[in-house]
């Protein structure tokens, strides 16, 4: 019998993981939890959504390879359709432009759980940024194949950084009017339909600049070896990070009173450290062994693919003969037996 006193804590989630996961674990295994009500480990909706995008990616990639104009048209049309679906859903349910959790202004639908299930986690509302990444990768692949790289003018570089900075800033802080409850319906609809794609476009310039040598010190910082172990642990940390977050809240008095901002940052930093500790264990016990098995099964035998390279006359003439240094090099014709 499972005995738990944490059920009576005010921070305990409304859906009990110990009850929901035994019933809905198959949805997480099949990566379809973002298509359902996402009742087991609800923060893993992103993994299911990205897996669906991964399955759909060959449609765009193959079309871009065979007919770039058609592929670009399909990609842009998909982004537009996704934005239109966001607008329709926001108008029907009176949703805010993005998930605001417990701080729901009075002019929006206060049911943030409904917002999470209906629009926030569904793939067809989020595919825009993924397609932007596909188009960026396609462009960078063509740039890499060029023998002569075009030099960019200073005006082009400065303009690109300015536009990208504005896009990133608006994608992050453009939700401020919604948080304040300002009655700007047109702005809220435009922001809700486009802010993720706009943010992806700004981030694409950052990747493009670093890849083409326009990143400068920022590229050196982002390419630092310090981030290598952190990036290797990112998947496992994301997979289990909510467990340390919830339990750190369960062991402290509730409600929380942050008298200063530094107390809030310390609390979040402790959660981050605990998440990386458990993420490291998860990586060592599960992720790395599976990756090694996959590498062993999918790696080709290099010995079977090697072909003997015939030696030409120049290679034989450079090798010393067995008769001594003073002897003349022997040509392949002299080494072969005479046919009578």
UniProtKB/TrEMBL annotation:
Species the sequence originates in: Bursaphelenchus xylophilus
Q: Which UniProt keywords apply?
A: Membrane, Transmembrane, Transmembrane helix
Q: Which stretches does the entry tag as region Disordered?
A: 310-340
Q: Enumerate the spans annotated as Acyltransferase domain.
A: 33-278
The record's listing under InterPro entries reads: Acyl_transf_3_dom, O2_lipid_transport_reg
Q: Where are the transmembrane segments?
A: 43-63, 70-93, 124-141, 153-173, 193-214, 226-252, 264-286
- Is the keyword Disulfide bond assigned to this protein? no
Question: Manganese: present as a keyword of the record?
Answer: no
| Coiled-coil region(s) | none
| Entry GO MF terms | acyltransferase activity, transferring groups other than amino-acyl groups
What name does this protein carry?
Answer: Acyl_transf_3 domain-containing protein
């Amino acid at each position: 019998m499972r005995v738990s006193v944490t059920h009576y804590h005010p921070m305990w989630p409304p859906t009990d993981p110990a009850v929901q996961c035994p019933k809905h674990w198959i949805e997480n295994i099949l990566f379809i939890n973002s298509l359902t009500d996402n009742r087991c480990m609800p923060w893993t909706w992103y993994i299911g959504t990205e897996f669906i995008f991964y399955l759909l990616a060959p449609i765009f990639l193959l079309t871009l390879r065979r007919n770039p104009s058609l592929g670009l048209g399909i990609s842009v049309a998909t982004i537009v359709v996704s934005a239109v679906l966001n607008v329709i859903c926001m108008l029907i349910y009176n949703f805010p432009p993005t998930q605001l959790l417990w701080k729901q202004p009075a002019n929006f639908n206060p049911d943030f759980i409904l917002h999470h299930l209906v629009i926030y986690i569904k793939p067809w509302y989020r595919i825009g940024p993924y397609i932007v990444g596909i188009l960026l990768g396609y462009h960078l692949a063509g740039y890499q194949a060029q023998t002569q790289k075009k030099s960019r003018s200073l005006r082009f570089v400065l303009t690109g950084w300015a536009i990208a900075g504005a896009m990133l800033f608006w994608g992050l802080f453009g939700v401020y009017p919604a948080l304040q409850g300002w009655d700007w319906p047109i702005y809220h609809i435009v922001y809700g339909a486009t802010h993720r794609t706009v943010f992806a476009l700004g981030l694409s310039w950052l990747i493009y600049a670093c890849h083409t040598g326009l990143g400068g010190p920022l590229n050196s910082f982002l390419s630092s070896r310090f981030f290598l172990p952190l990036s290797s642990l990112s998947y496992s940390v994301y997979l289990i990070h909510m467990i340390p977050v919830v339990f750190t809240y369960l062991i402290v008095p509730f409600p929380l009173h942050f008298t200063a901002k530094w107390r809030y940052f310390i609390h979040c930093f402790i959660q981050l450290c605990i998440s990386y500790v458990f993420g490291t264990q998860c990586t060592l016990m599960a992720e790395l062994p599976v990756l090694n098995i996959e590498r062993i099964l999918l790696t080709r035998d290099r010995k079977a693919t090697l072909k003997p390279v015939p030696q030409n006359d120049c290679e034989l003439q450079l090798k010393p003969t067995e008769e001594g240094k003073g002897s003349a090099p022997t040509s392949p014709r002299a080494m072969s037996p005479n046919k009578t």
